[in-house]
Design brief:
Number of domains of chain A: 3
Helix content of chain A: 55-70%
Strand order of the largest sheet of chain B: 3-2-1-5-8
Mean pLDDT of chain B: 92
Shape of chain B: elongated
Structural class of chain A: mainly alpha
Strand content of chain A: under 5%
Bound molecules: protoporphyrin IX containing FE, copper (II) ion
Number of helices of chain A: 17
Oligomer: heterodimer
Helix content of chain B: 25-40%
CATH topology of the largest domain in chain A: Cytochrome C Oxidase, Chain A
Distance between the termini of chain A: 19 Å
CATH superfamily of the largest domain in chain A: Cytochrome c oxidase-like, subunit I domain
Low-confidence stretches of chain B: none
Shape of chain A: globular
Radius of gyration of chain A: 25 Å
Number of helices of chain B: 5
Largest interface: A-B, 115 and 101 residues
Number of strands of chain A: 0
CATH architecture of the largest domain in chain B: Sandwich
Order of helices and strands of chain A: HHHHHHHHHHHHHHHHH
Number of domains of chain B: 2
Chain lengths: 615, 281
Amino acid sequence: MSSISSTATGSHGSSVHDHVQGHDLTHGHGHGHGHGQSFISKYVFSTDHKVIGIQFLCTTLLMLIVGGALALGVRWQLAWGMETMPFFGLLFKTEGGQISPDFYTMLFTMHATVMIFLVIIPVLAGAFGNFLIPLMIGADDMAFPVLNMLSYWFMWPAIGFFGLSFLSAGYGAAAGWTSYPLLSALAEAAPGSGWAQNWWLIGLTFVGVSSMMGSVNYMTTIINMRAPGMTLFRMPLTIWAMFITAILQAFALPVLTAAGFMLVADRLLGTCFFIPAGIIVNNADPTVGGGQPLLWQHLFWFYSHPAVYIMLLPAMGMVSDMLSCMARKPIFGYKPMVYSMAAIAGLGFIVWGHHMFTSGMNPALGMTFMVSTVMIALPSAVKVFNWIGTLWGGRLEFNTVLLNSVAFVSMFIIGGLSGIFMAAVPVDIYIHDTYFIVAHFHYVLFGATLFGVFGAIQFWYPKMFGRMMSERIGKLHFLLTFIGFNGTFFPMHLLGVAGMPRRYANPYMYPYLNHLLDMNQFMTVCAILMGLAQFLLLGNFLFSLKFGTPCGRNPWNANGLEWAAPSPPGHGNFDVPPICYRGPYEYSSPGAPEGEDHWMQTDPRGKGWKPPAEH
Amino acid sequence: MKKFWIALFMLVPILALWSCYVAPERGWWFPGTTGPYGGEAASPMGRRIDDLFYMILAITTVTFIGTQLALGYVLWTGARRGDAGSGEKAWFSHGSHNLEVIWSIVPAGILLFIALYQMDVVAAIRFKSEFPEQVQNRPLAEVTARQFEWRIRYPGFDANGNLLPLMADPQPTDLYAVNDLRLPAAQPVMINLRTDDVQHAFFLPELRVKQDAVPGLTIPVWFEADRADEFTLLCAELCGWGHYKMRARFVALREPDFLQYLRDLQAQQDYDGVPDAADEE
Ligand code: HEM
Ligand SMILES: [Cu+2]
Ligand SMILES: [Cu+2]
């Protein structure tokens, strides 16, 4: 295995790993596999990355239900707004169960908030990042286990503050997840702009702190704690994706946190970062002013555009691993995959202005943002081609994992292509803030990321719990979700082209939108189907804990280091300290041991291999 | 079962194409009633925007069909290889340098073309220096958004009945209207867009015009309605609970009708409540 230290980074890396491995040997057994720990320190305030990952996973699945319920509230209003809304209607008994327009603005604001900050971001980095990083690079835990524990426990204040927001006047923040001032800056501007908005901003800060702690941990762990032989270019794409995501978070988050504090200061301390002079809202006193509302948009999107990739890259990595395994074939173009993720991340920092094409910022600036935005579709396209290339000539296993991963690719194509329309400034002038945008980001965030996550749950569940999830229920869940998803979101492109604005409590009062009611009702039916289907996932998840088929270490015959550990891995992860001999995608390799179509990264056997004399 | 799943995936492009194909006749397409593809924009610039949309639609449709078919093909052949009894192994390949180069450079060229192709339209819409000569520094109205209505301020007439220029600050001669913007048709016109309170956006869907109204800024917007007609004006930026109901109309009038409209406004505004004998007809 001469290639272990063939590159500079590799040789540098492996000397670090030798040290880490020593750490493994001396301390690994000292931890005693968790015996003698109290229940609290083992399952609640655990510093074990696997427990923390699973805590994140369960929390985000719970939040998925909350966010889904809010979404169904939105859909109900758009389909049967004149009728009693189930569940939420109880709050509006006096109005005959019909919800109010300000409640509607709260619904979509909090739906997006919950889904983005409490589901998608923490399920990728928090749940899978935590669970997979040490296992896949062959470390016994994260570099900073206590910090890791804190990153989970900082989610709960965030959830609590968002919850407080619901309980404040207006039933919650209602300025959109983008919270543009002045709507979000002046308490008089809307019912939800009082304390609900303060709680929302504070909640957001906690999510940020949580992500930041994760980010520091992931970067350090991936740089310093790889097993011997795990050179950078032998890392699974999941790890590359998590690494790049962590870098994105480290550079983008401080800007959001600062902007959040500035807005809180404007609201509570009387500063005017975002508030110009002489504005009179709802007969309140004129503002003193001097600030610029567009500043918020720049700061917010400087974070939030990279953040949309934080919400995607890890799923891209996991899908790459799953596709390769289920096709029994190496990744097509491993290095182009890595470079294109890096390119997405890099370009991701210079495209934020594409959310502001109609905002009144300097139009020359708009042109440069247009070029960079259109070009970011390039690495995305390269990735799609390579995923298709990975499947090409494969020996496919049509299981739930493959289906969800293929859905990821297929849906990402649609979301990526719709992005090009919006990247073109003149076209965006028309479709900005219409349902076309809503279609776009649901195709990438739900169509791509969530299908990827569904696949990943099915794929790594055996490692988490030592049992398989039901294939039958998994496929049924996939089928219903896939149909419901496309039925709900594809028509949104057409609504957008028809000029239906987003965030309207009642679009039908406009004659040119009146006839779109039927289509919206169809979409809501599909959304309800999709919502109900998620109980299959939940049921499957819980049911399989007890009744799933027990599995060994490597039920998928996969190559990664994590599959060399016991299922579930004990405290300290590996019973035999892993050594990495090759890249993670050597499926169907002619060099593999006789009769096997996979060749694990930890497998010392291969051409010219002789059993070592000692041992 | 494998065939079922492949069919499911292939249903996506089929239904997507079908729904876009039937969209115009079912009213799921651009607003408006003229034009062969459902709504055609009611302004020259709107049609240029639509043309760009169709250009991108053509390119993305080809890409969409191509990638989805490729996906279907690799699934189909991969399914066969994985059948029970098939001893065929997967193709052991780490990729192809040539393919990577091709599928990086070709899309890069196409994408760059798409971006550069937009430039002159962007400039024409947004660069003040590129605004049509007639409207340069000659706004006909000031549109001020507020929760939840549109206030419109026109310049009034001087003593000789000549239309005054619109001043940045309100003048005693100014004329006012609410939720009813009227401007001349068939010629470029410019408004100054402001907001009194939070952010809003001025959206004329039939004309493909959209511009945010930002607190503290006055933003000039120009457009041109093809014909004398009535269009929808609505708000496209979340501005509070009543965001959906900032309904207004934009009425494009022949030039003499526009002046007459302003005179009528002036007459209304000057009306002192005392019936004027001469006025009764
Ligand atoms: C092919 C690459 C992509 C391009 C060219 C692109 C382009 C754009 C543009 C121009 C907008 C702003 C549209 C507007 O508001 O008028 C936008 C919005 C958005 N994009 Fe993308 N996008 C791409 C990929 C993605 C991906 C991968 C994600 C997430 C995983 C994503 C998530 C979003 C979200 C969440 C919004 C809307 C935010 C909001 O206004 O609420 N996009 N995209
Ligand atoms: Cu963006
Ligand atoms: Cu509005």
